[in-house]
Fold:
Amino acid sequence: MRLLLAILLLAPAALAQEDREVQRVHVVERRPFSEANRAELTLFGLGQVNPHFTTHAGVGVELSYHLRENLAALVSVSYNALAHQSALTEELAAKVDQQPLAASALLLQADALAGLELMPIYGKISLFDRTILRLGLYVNAGLGIAKTRLQLRPSDAVGGRSFGDTGFRPEAGLGVGTRIFAGDRITFRLELRDRIYSAYVSKVNGCNVQDARAIRTSGSGATGLGPGCNPSSFGGSEDEIKSSAGSAAIQLGEPSSSVINNLAVQGGVSWLF
Amino acid sequence: MKRTSPIAFLFATLCAAGVAVRAEEAAYGPAAPPGVQGKLHQVSRRWELGVTFGIALNNSFVDQYGGLLSISYHPNEWVDLGVDVLANRNSFSTLAGQIRARLPSRTNPGTGRPNTGDEIAGADQMQGGALAMGRIAPIYGKLNLAAELPVHFQVFLLAGAGAASFKHESVNLCASPGDAPCAPNDYQTTTSLKPVGEAGGGLRIYLGQRWSLRSEVRAFLYPATVLRGADLTQPGTGTTARYLGVITTVGLGASALF
Structure:
């Protein structure tokens, strides 16, 4: 009887001990595939989400090489097919004869970045409790160069919008996003990327403010222009040249500089190989 | 043979029952088959009360800060239906002040004749409203932060319709006639009740079976108007043009399930 009692007393204790052991065990599920030592090519569509004075939309390509499961090196280029002043900016010019400083409305035409991506967070999602997909949250950072331009004429001007080249500027990129794995080769990506570039504007189409004023007055016959300044870069006809150079002269007349945060949402599809 | 005492027998019975109960727990515990993990946080047939604080993203002339109270019922795991009540605090932005400070003259200095002009759009102030709202949450997920902290979340889309009170204060049209520059706080102002639609999406992060954090983006759409070709010296002139107004907000809040 004593033996029976001892067994019955020890049995719950043993089960409790077993529970404590179970609580200490983590279930580690093996990932079905790994991105390590693989390259990833991504096609993006992107659109600016803070369109105060400017509007941007375009496409991008990114090539990443995953050094580890959660670390990748990347290079990316993007081109904004749509890069012009916002409706607000044009509305202010048309209705109250006001416009933002040139630096605040500097447009990002294209850019190239090289950097690193870290994907520290990994998880799973289920769609309607049926399809289970894996996902990762990542951050990236890079340095590169931005090609910029300035809008000279609004959309309602004769001949439509016109732009002046303002050259290349250094750029930094910071991104945060999610990568959803649809298989071992295809992933979908959604990212918020901040492109930060300097916006000191001193020349348009290679012409400084004195050059622009001279072209506004004399058109294609302007003389004494600085090196690299060509009146024909402002338009095809004499009227276009004078009006665009006039706009450039106004915008250059008030020197301005700024650091622009171009915040864009970009979504795309990737191919891992 | 020595007889077992009643106390020892009762104690042995209780111990044996304890083992049996634990064995039952082990045998019938998880209902789901091995390898398939059910949702840790169930919302079916529960009420949800949430508060969200938000700011407007796209409104250049108006700084809008507000709160949104929502109550909804989840008939199943994917859908909830309810009511949103919102209230906002609005003020004109620095940009609006800069524009007002440099408005063009109301008359032609050369001829003295009145100038005409169009009203600047996008200056509507949504003060408060109520909307019937539906939300669908097709994605449920789990992340591991620092490999040890599981975070359960749900992604949702929402849409709704209702009515809201709007204050429309013109950025550039004066309320008083004349050719003098507009005095501060003397701009054409109206208030009205307008139909409003909303669409948005967000993320709910579960803190437990009752509490969760919510982050969301909502776009409020409403019929807006501006004046075109107004005589800048005479309030009430010009023709009304309609357009679709959009106020986009980003919000952060918390909700409780009952």
Remarks:
- The first strand of chain B starts at residue 46 and ends at 56.
- Chain B touches chain A at residues 2, 4, 8, 11-12, 15-16, 18-19, 22, 39, 57-58, 60, 77-78, 99, 102-104, 117-122, 138-145, 151, 155, 172 (CB under 8 Å).
